[in-house]
Each structure stands twice: as C-alpha cells, then as structure tokens.
C-alpha cells in the first residue's frame, strides 16, 4: 500500500474515533479538518504557559480551530503573530498587539478577525521563534499528519527558503491524546514536530526525523504553482540565479 493511502487510512481512523467517542467539538463533523476536540483549551494552555511560548517574540500559527486560544494569547501577550492566508493565495497576515483594540483579542484570533485586524504581506520581515501546526495525528517520534492538503509543510518550506525559520526553530502542535498514534509514514517534505501538547501532558518528541531544508521543487504540484503567487516569485528568483 502506498504512503498516501496509509496516511489517509490513519486520518479516517482518527476522525471516525473522535466522532464516535464524542471527543470532537465544533466545527463538526471533523472529517477533512484539523479536528477540534474537548480539552483543546487545556492543551493550548500547556503550550502558552511553557517556556517555549514565553521566550518567543514571533509566533507563526496555523489558522485551525484547536489552536485559536494560542493565537489569542500571542496577541494578548504582545507577541508578533504570523498566519498564512487560506491556501497561501494572499501570502501572510501579520497581527500585532497595536493592531487589535483591547477586548477584541478573541475576535482577532479567528480567521475572519485576522483579516479584519491583521495586515497582509507577501513576505514577512520577521524571523520566527516558534511554529505552531495543527495535526490530525502525531507520533512520539515526531511524525505529524495533517488533513492532506500539504499546506503546513509548504508554509515551512517557504519560510526555510526565505531564511525566516531554521532547523532549530521549534515546531509544536496541540492534539487530544487519542490523536497520538504508533506509526505515520514520513517523506522528505514532511515537517516533524518537536513538542506535543495534549490536555493531559507535554511531550518532547524523540526527534528522529530531519526537517526539510527548503522547497523541493520537484514535488510542487501544478495547482500549487498556479494558485500561490509567492511560489511563482520564488521559482523565478531561483531560475534567475
């Protein structure tokens, strides 16, 4: 069985189990999503109270529902929050404390609010201290599985290409304990996680996988190249050298 089919089987198993056991919360059903779960606020708080979060001045965070409290905390604690726009079509959003009226931090941490209060940019001008990814499943060795679009890995690859993130930049995720599995196949473009935060514990992964060192152009699809202006720009720059 191919890697893609194995990954999809794992996704379907996790989605089905979370729905069956009523672990999933809005938005439901969780099929096809980074699943939100009961206790996501507790898992988020484990990260927010960690030294990793406290020491980070610039945080890149996914736009998914379970990680919304992390984005809100980044705004409240005067950190620079960077988010990718949906499917990277409009580049990135930068959200600073100064951009958000007091009392509206929660609203600004939603996708709609981020567009209201954040500022669009093609290429961020900040080095990133912490990357927060949403996950469907993870392993304690650090393998991570997203919902299948490949955008989280692509974001990382672009940030590495732009030298805004490095091999040493921690990549973390928050999940329910049920989302920790024994095995996920890993390919060269898959970005492993360094830390996993659940409602019950914080896990330092075994870090047996190397992080991608940039964009693997041979794996970029025609759709991605067609629909992501920044990719085309980076490709032109590469070809002109």
What does this structure look like?
The protein has 241 residues and is an alpha/beta fold. It has one domain (3-240): NagB/RpiA/CoA transferase-like (Rossmann fold). It contains 9 helices and 10 strands. The strands form 2 sheets. Strands 4-3-2-1-5-8-9-10 form an 8-stranded mixed β-sheet. The longest helix has 18 residues, at 3-20. It is globular.
Q: How would the global form be characterised?
A: globular
- Tally of individual helices: 9
CATH level-four homologous superfamily name: NagB/RpiA/CoA transferase-like
Report the β-strand fraction as a percent range.
Answer: 5-15%
Describe what is shown at a glance:
This protein is of the alpha/beta class and 241 residues long.
Q: How are the secondary structure elements laid out?
A:
Layout: H1 3-20, H2 40-48, H3 51-55, E1 58-61, H4 68-76, E2 80-84, E3 92-95, H5 105-108, H6 111-117, E4 119-121, E5 130-133, E6 137-138, E7 144-145, H7 151-161, E8 171-174, E9 195-197, E10 202-204, H8 222-227, H9 229-240
Parallel strand pairs: 1-2, 1-5, 5-8, 8-9
Antiparallel strand pairs: 2-3, 3-4, 6-7, 9-10
Key features of this structure:
241 residues; alpha/beta; Rossmann fold; eight-stranded mixed sheet; two-stranded antiparallel ribbon; 9 helices; globular
């Amino acid at each position: 069985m191919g890697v893609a089919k194995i990954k999809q089987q794992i996704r379907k198993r996790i989605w089905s189990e979370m729905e069956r056991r009523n672990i999933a919360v809005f938005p439901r059903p969780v099929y096809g999503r980074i699943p939100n779960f009961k206790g996501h606020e507790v898992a988020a708080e484990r990260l927010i109270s960690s030294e990793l979060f406290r020491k980070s001045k610039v945080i890149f965070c996914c736009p998914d529902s379970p990680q919304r409290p992390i984005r809100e905390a980044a705004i409240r604690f005067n950190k620079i929050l960077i988010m990718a726009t949906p499917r990277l079509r409009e580049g990135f959003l930068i959200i600073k404390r100064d951009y958000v009226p007091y009392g509206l931090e929660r609203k600004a941490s939603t996708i709609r609010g981020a567009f209201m209060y954040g500022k669009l940019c093609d290429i961020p001008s900040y080095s990133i201290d912490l990357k927060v990814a949403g996950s469907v499943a993870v392993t304690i060795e650090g393998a991570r599985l997203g919902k299948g679009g490949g955008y989280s890995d692509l974001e990382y690859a672009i940030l590495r290409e732009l030298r805004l993130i490095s091999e040493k930049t921690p990549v973390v995720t928050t999940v329910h304990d049920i989302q920790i599995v024994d095995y996920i196949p890993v390919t060269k473009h898959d970005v492993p996680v360094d830390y996993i935060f659940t409602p019950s514990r914080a896990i330092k992964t075994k870090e047996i996988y190397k992080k991608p060192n940039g964009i693997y152009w041979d794996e970029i699809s025609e759709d991605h190249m067609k629909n992501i202006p920044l990719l085309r720009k980076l490709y032109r720059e590469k070809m002109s050298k």
